[in-house]
Amino acid sequence: MEYTTEIVTGITALFIILFYAVITKGNKTALTFLKEGNKELKVHKLMHYLGLAAIIFAFTLLAIPFFLIDEQGFLILLAIISILAIGIGLAGMYLVVEYKNARVIYNDEEIQIVNYKGQPKTLKWPDIQKISVNSFT
Prior knowledge:
Mean pLDDT: 80
Low-confidence stretches: none
Structural class: alpha+beta
Number of strands: 5
Largest sheet: 5 strands, antiparallel
Order of helices and strands: HEEHHEEE
Number of helices: 3
Distance between the termini: 40 Å
Strand content: 15-25%
């Protein structure tokens, strides 16, 4: 395997970029003005494209060992690459699903939070005592 170092370096770099994108997702939002005075905050479209790229990369990554099928240590390489591909693919799917579902819709009377599963929760502004933001959740 001539390009082992380059492959591992590339995979590591992509994994770090994906990890950073997932933990900073709350900082990348897009504001849209809806009808009836409502405003919508949504995950930035870049996260959607990054998620799609990660899924495509994960499937491409799974194909690499089959080009090296005659090499010694094929099963070990297959196992390592499969674990990396599953991790990258899951991070990519999370970003795509979150882009499609997660949003905050608010107006002068209430705020509605929709999580990545698409489950909404509505609160009236007077009922809110304290707000804290954690970019890891």
